[in-house]
Amino acid sequence: MAHPDAEASRLAGAHQFLEGLVSADLVPDEPAQRAITDVINPRLREAGLELRETGSDGGYPVFSVVPVSAARHRQPKNLVFASQVKPDIRISDAISNDIEIVENADKVLIYDRPIGTDGLRWRDLQQWWKDTRQLGSDDEAKRSLYARLSSALPGNSPPQRNLFDLYHEIHGTAVPGLPALLPEVWLHWDPKTVRERGTAALLGHRMDFLLLLPQGQRVVLEVDGSHHYASPDGTRPAPARYAALARADRELKLNGYEVFRFGATELRDPGSARSLLQAFFADLFRRFNVTP
């Protein structure tokens, strides 16, 4: 049996070969690029992969090999995160899909830069933070960004805070090249309340954590406390709550997100949580071919 690292290297090489085969460097003709892609994709999809247009270079499309489950994703336009309150959003330019926060703009972050095939790494997020806050040094940007993201974590969820802190402690100096761990990310946003919208209301608005991985892959991490499956006072099961949770998971997965759930009890003790998360993230990054 091949060593996992050797297998990953072999697959990466195969992906690079296919991407090069339809690149403008080899085929400086856009219709020809697309024609070759159309020939390759039916066979590639049998392996659960697809050549997908992920950018442009010199006016020519750039194609990347991505999992079929990720191929449905377009490039993110507005990433709304790090907020515990529902933001008051309005569209300032409907043609360009530009949004702005009307109230409490200091309580929510919007990352609006292009996110390429490498996903959103910590170094990208830190550079955006440094530029938009006009900070003088990388160290200042790193410290203040970490503090800002940490401040968005629910105060009543030590397990969620442990996951966030340990992600950065475990990976240490490798963090800049790894996917940024984004807390409290808004997936759905509806300006009307459930009472106003009725049965058509969008539920499950916010994710605990989101990782935007290379090649358009999106991973959601959820930390489930008793409020996910028990009555508000925690004394009895709440089947309706659990059913809503299961439905939200199904919808996320059908839309190409990978969802991983932790029980709050697993992450309550930092010592045992560290061992668990160290193994989990090693397996996760191996599966999705993530390297610093």
Keywords:
alpha+beta, 21% strand, 9 helices, 2 domains
Describe this structure in words.
This protein is globular. The two termini are 26 Å apart. The relative contact order is 0.11. The protein has a 4-stranded mixed sheet, with helices on both faces. Strands 1-2 form a two-stranded antiparallel ribbon. It contains 9 helices and 10 strands. It folds into 2 domains: 4-71, no CATH class; 79-287, no CATH class. Helix 4 (122-132) packs across helix 5 (138-151) and helix 6 (158-171) crosses helix 9. Helices cover 39% and strands 21% of the residues.
**What's the story with the biggest beta sheet?**
4 strands, mixed
Radius of gyration: 21 Å
| Main sheet strand line-up | 7-8-9-10
Fraction in beta strands: 15-25%
What oligomerization state is this entry in? single chain
How many β-strand runs?
10
SSE-based structural type: alpha+beta
What is the topological layout?
Layout: H1 4-21, H2 30-45, E1 49-57, E2 60-67, H3 68-71, E3 79-81, E4 88-93, E5 98-103, E6 109-111, H4 122-132, H5 138-151, H6 158-171, E7 182-186, H7 194-197, E8 206-212, E9 218-224, H8 239-254, E10 257-263, H9 270-287
Parallel strand pairs: 9-10
Antiparallel strand pairs: 1-2, 3-6, 4-5, 7-8, 8-9
